[in-house]
Specification:
single chain; mainly alpha; 55% helix; 0% strand; globular; binds zinc ion; transmembrane; oxidoreductase activity; Sterol desaturase family protein
């Protein structure tokens, strides 16, 4: 089992390198910086810290106790299937679920608050897909992985499915000018998903597919014009800080107005100050004073 995780990690890191290279050679939007706004928030807090913490919650605190209590996995409902059949089954059924839940999140004001963070970035790239509200991940990954374990799938299905999610997630958000032709009716890619991240009214309720584009074509929500979006992200102001993004989903506030309070100011500028200090130590650079408007969005 350990070696499967090593192999999936190597494949994932290689895929990241390939996509970054393709973004450099064939950009969808030219001039997008690699260290774009929110890069460190997405990498450190969403990709590493949140994923790790939620993995413990989802597997150890929800799915395992559920299985221990009801003993579903002992029924071995899919155990006899070949591994590829199990993977295919869970990829397709979960993708069908995620299409409808995603669509529901765009229509329901309450659940929109668990999804708006994902749309908050104005510079969409390979890493942008990682920005997902903790509650959204908690719901979606519990619904994704609970059936895999409860139906008695082979243990390798979990890391293989997680790898497929990551590879596809990176691909659909990548800033690559892909022209996949008829394949875009079947396989979802940046052509349609980058439009989903645009701040254009015509796509507020379109392009909900994640892996298979045919859900959008089948259920009448596909949007694929011949041009590229002009505006990106949300049409309203959204906090840049990870924790404030989560607070904002519960209680609306104006980040700028909170800066009047010294305690909040201290918290708000703590990480940029630490980062500046680290840069001075590591690269022996002179500490630069960062104006409020261009504060590092870590
Ligand atoms: Zn969305
Ligand atoms: Zn997305």
């Amino acid at each position: 089992m350990k070696h499967v995780e090593v192999i999936t990690t190597v494949i994932l890191l290689s895929w990241v390198a390939v996509v970054i290279l393709l973004e450099k050679c064939f950009p969808y939007r030219k001039g997008l910086p690699f260290f774009r706004e929110g890069f460190w928030t997405d990498l450190v807090l969403y990709t590493l810290v949140q994923s790790y913490a939620l993995k413990i919650v989802i597997f150890d605190l929800i799915i395992q106790p559920l299985d221990q209590h009801f003993g579903f996995s002992k029924l071995h409902l899919v155990t006899g299937w070949p591994v590829w059949g199990q993977v295919l089954f869970f990829v397709v059924t979960h993708d069908f679920y995620i299409y409808w839940f995603h669509r529901f999140q765009h229509h329901n004001p309450f659940f929109w608050r668990t999804h708006e963070a994902h749309h908050s970035g104005k510079q969409v790239d390979w890493l942008a897909g990682s920005r997902s509200h903790a509650v959204e991940i908690l719901i979606n990954q519990t619904i994704e992985f609970a059936p895999i374990i409860l139906l008695g799938a082979d243990p390798v299905v979990v890391p293989i499915k997680a790898l497929i999610d990551a590879v596809w997630g990176i691909y659909i958000h990548a800033n690559i000018d892909v022209k996949s032709g008829r394949l875009q009716y079947f396989i979802n890619g940046p052509e349609m998903h980058l439009w989903h991240h645009a701040d254009h009214q015509e796509v507020f309720h379109a392009n909900f597919s994640t892996k298979f584009a045919f859900w959008d074509w089948l259920f009448g929500t596909a949007y694929l014009p011949g041009h590229k979006p002009a505006k990106w992200g949300l049409y309203y102001a959204f906090p840049k800080d990870y924790f404030l993004q989560h607070v904002f989903s519960v209680k609306r506030f104006d980040e700028r107005r909170l800066l009047r309070y010294s305690l909040f100011r201290r918290y708000y500028y703590l990480r940029p100050a630490l980062w500046r200090w680290l840069r001075t130590v590591l690269f022996r650079r002179k500490p630069a004073t960062t104006p409020v408007a261009s504060r590092l969005s870590t």
